[in-house]
Amino acid sequence: MNRQGFGGAPSSINFSTGITGTAINECPPSDLTEEDLDSLRVELSKTEDEIQTLRQVLLAKEKYAADIRRQLGMSPLSNIKQNLSKGWQEVQTSAPYLTASATLEDISHSTVYVRTRESLSQAGQVTSSALSTMGVVITRRLAEMRALPLPSPPRTLSHTKLFDFQVF
């Protein structure tokens, strides 16, 4: 099969592949003449140069698009914010979210939930009161301890008496 080169120029190289099953058989280098190998090397070099050129063009286009976005007042942060907002709206209108929301609404109005909430609230108030009372008692005890005289400083031992013992 003859292949058109980049830009529509005809290529003089005959690219043929044999396909068996799902694997593509490549021609071993021994089946190609030195002239064919040189042509393939030149074609590969041209293709790699074209790829590099296309990357440079793409980079220039991306910079140009970023400049246009900046001139329009579209910052990357505003794009992220807009995408998150749109995503959140899609989540809120999705069937699973609406079902879960309705289920949670039903649970929050159930008698078991209301009684549990009230019990936990009362337990929290009792715990808060107990901790407050304990804090007052600790503060009072620390104040009493401050009023006590400090003990006399400890006596220092001389190091000669410190090691005064017998070894058997």
Structure notes:
- The chain is mostly helical and 168 residues long.
- The protein is 65% helix and 8% strand.
- The strands form two sheets. It has a two-stranded antiparallel ribbon with strand order 1-2. A two-stranded antiparallel ribbon has the order 3-4.
- A hairpin with a 5-residue loop joins strand 1 and strand 2.
- The termini are far apart.
Condensed summary:
Mean pLDDT is 81; it is low at 15-24. The protein has helices at residues 34-71, 76-92, 95-108, 111-147, 159-162; strands at 2-4, 10-14, 18-20, 23-25. With 168 residues, the protein is mainly alpha-helical.
Helix content: 55-70%
SSE pattern, N- to C-terminal = EEEEHHHHH
The number of distinct helices, counting runs of at least 4 residues, comes to: 5
What is the approximate shape?
elongated
Structural class: mainly alpha
Characterize the largest beta sheet: strand count, sense, and whether it forms a barrel.
2 strands, antiparallel
Strand content: 5-15%
Q: Give the tally of β-strands.
A: 4
